[in-house]
Structures
1.
Amino acid sequence: MRKPIIAGNWKMHKTVAEGLAFMDAIKPEVSGTDVEVLVCAPFTLLPSLVEAAKGTNIKIGAQNMHYEDHGAFTGEVSADMLLDIGVTHVIIGHSERRQYFAETDETVNLKTRKALSKGLTPVVCCGESLEQREAGETKTVCKTQIVKAFENISLADASKVVVAYEPIWAIGTGKTSSSKDANDVIAYIREVLAALYSTEVSEEIRIQYGGSVKPANVEEIMNETDIDGALVGGASLEADSFVQLVNF
Ligand SMILES: O=C[C@H](O)COP(=O)(O)O
């Protein structure tokens, strides 16, 4: 049985004070849940959030990392640096990183392998653009991204990866994929993983949906058979809304 995972991706939002106020507000409201609760914040907030999450069931993640251990990479942060401050998860290959920061399927793979080798849980994103969807390429695009992301990842490590299927046209637009459509693509991603590894491993890997998830639609999405969680941007920024998502 896969444990559901509800993750907030704050993107480039919040000061430390705002992040800590959010943590104070959600802690008592999410403490009883069976769902894995994850907050992925900008680098500047991570040490404070890790401290605030101590002794709770809330995990703290980064939104990116570099695949090298150290070196002349101005502006970048390594896996060891994240581990050093107590971060446990890292989003890799978000479409905004692919679109604005030249993230490629190859760097997604390098980062995923590095995260796993260090003991960080990678949340690996895939998803098609509107143009690709209209051209009927959704499954091909997701397959290409997933096959490359998992290249040279062992069977033992594969089940530690969390996948997030995020159709780009649904991100921050208010347009959600229908839960059936999202489930259909996610079931297909599971078939791709079964072919790469085994049915057993593919049944263990958690696959989230992301794209305009909000309290009003989270239950329907989470009721789908293959959807194991949500990666949420806008609706994760307010404590009330995030609590409703976790307690779907
Ligand atoms: O990482 C989160 C996704 O990009 C979804 O963002 P959104 O919930 O604002 O559509």
Note: The first helix runs from residue 16 to 30.
2.
Amino acid sequence: MELTAPLVLALPKGRILDEVMPLVRAAGIEPEAAFDDPKSRALKFDTNIPGLSIIRVRAFDAATFVAFGAAHLGVVGNDVLREFDYDDLYSPLDLGIGYCRLSVALPNEMAQEIKAAGRTDSDGLSHVRVATKYPNITRQFYAEKGVQAEVVKLNGAMELAPALQLTPRIVDLVSTGGTLKANGLQEVDTLMEITSRLVVNRSAFKIRPKELSYWTDKFRDALASLSSKGA
Ligand SMILES: Nc1ncnc2c1ncn2[C@@H]1O[C@H](COP(=O)(O)OP(=O)(O)OP(=O)(O)O)[C@@H](O)[C@H]1O
Ligand SMILES: O=P(O)(O)OC[C@H]1O[C@H](OP(=O)(O)OP(=O)(O)O)[C@H](O)[C@@H]1O
């Protein structure tokens, strides 16, 4: 990584972008107009800060860009951090946005049977089939209970899996619970609580400590200032 290379901030383009941008702006970073132009196909944007650009990528890829040093800092959910477990990612700041949880869900009837019997989902099981976007977290969660998880990896619409007999169980993100309900599913266990974090590439932090500490502090101040305004 060249010392003079511009800093790159990786932002997730999906649902958390709307929650992230007030923080980015409160930290004093204003992207060029194309960033807010829905017709623009650009993926990298200059900002009002010379030497700082923004890339807009898929949520999982934001972690990858930063972990490999292609971006220097970024915003990533701790679901993604746990799933990839990249050594080179340092996450100094919980941004308190993008709250959701990662849960096991089953069809209503099966969930009700388990609850009525006062059992937990994995009681008495040695093997489960699960559809999820999070194979590593899922395998680890079941392994800790002594259960072997056979994972079917999906990238979205996990909620279809039980009704279509792909797998009886899913492990997926839940926020309002609306998607589970609309698909006849109920939560029976929670693997982790999730919020988004500011992440920094560890090597970049060693090589460019002043700049990266400056931006970490700016985000910390922006968070405090937005919280004090009740935003
Ligand atoms: N329902 C939700 N409520 C709040 N935060 C969520 C929710 N779903 C996901 N998140 C957070 O937002 C991140 C991105 O969400 P998700 O993986 O669903 O991507 P997406 O917005 O659908 O885009 P992609 O096209 O990359 O899949 C997740 O890693 C998680 O941290
Ligand atoms: O509890 P809720 O508020 O209904 O939110 C949960 C849904 O949000 C996420 O999907 P998203 O909308 O990001 O679409 P995806 O399936 O493409 O990931 C997640 O995978 C659930 O499907």
Note: The chain has two domains: 7-97+195-228, 100-194.
